[in-house]
Structure formats: structure tokens, C-alpha cells
Input
Amino acid sequence: MAFSKPSEENDDGLMAEINMTPFVDVMLVLLIIFIVTLPVMQQSVKIELPKALSAASSSKPDSIQVSVDQHGKIFWNTSEVSLNEFSKKAKIAADLNPMPDVNLRADKRVAYEYVAQVLTASKRNGLTKIGFVTESP
Output
């Protein structure tokens, strides 16, 4: 069985393109239906929810500002600490409930080694909620 290329003579005038107009029309109609019915569905049942106090949502954990300057000095909030002192403070902070967030600010000229030491000490002592603070350009 051989396949041959259809010649110009056998062309039945079939169009090989897909007409997108009906598809776009249907999609626009569906979009309008969803836009109209969505507010109706959300407001169909009116209820008044009971009020309750939740202790977990009312207490927000403190955040600790850890900074590493361009010379590799470590600062806990605003006081300079050594790596050993940082480890001790990190251990104490990790035992708090809820655990505080750590906001790490490192100078862009500091060697990565110092930042890695702070991250390792934090992780080793149980501080896992660490965020990097940057500036937008």
C-alpha cells in the first residue's frame, strides 16, 4: 500500500484551517455566565457566624534581627555578639513558644562564609524560621 501526495486535480476543496470564531463566542458566553452567577452563589445563604477568641492567632511571635556587617561581625538585634554567644542566644530563642522569626540582614560585601556560619548555628540550635532581608533596587 503506497501513500501518494494528493495532486492538484484531486483537490475536493476541503479547508484545512480551524475556525476559531465559534470557540471564542462560546468562551465569552461562559465567562459572562460565571461573572453573573458567582456573586449570587456566594450570597445565597446568609448566616451569622459565632464569635470566639483564639489564643493562637492573638499572639504573634517576636522577630529577631540578625545582622552580619562587611567585616563578618554578628549583631543580635543591635548588640554585637560572637558566634558562640549567638549560638547560646539562638538556643534560648528556639525554646520559646511560639518560635520567633529570624530576619537575617547581611552586607553585600561580606564573605559568604560568615553568613553560612550564622545559618549553620541557627539551624543547629533549632531556629528554623529564617528570612533574608533585602532592599529593592
In short: DSSP finds four helices and five strands in the chain. The first strand starts at residue 63 and ends at 68. The chain has a mean pLDDT of 81.
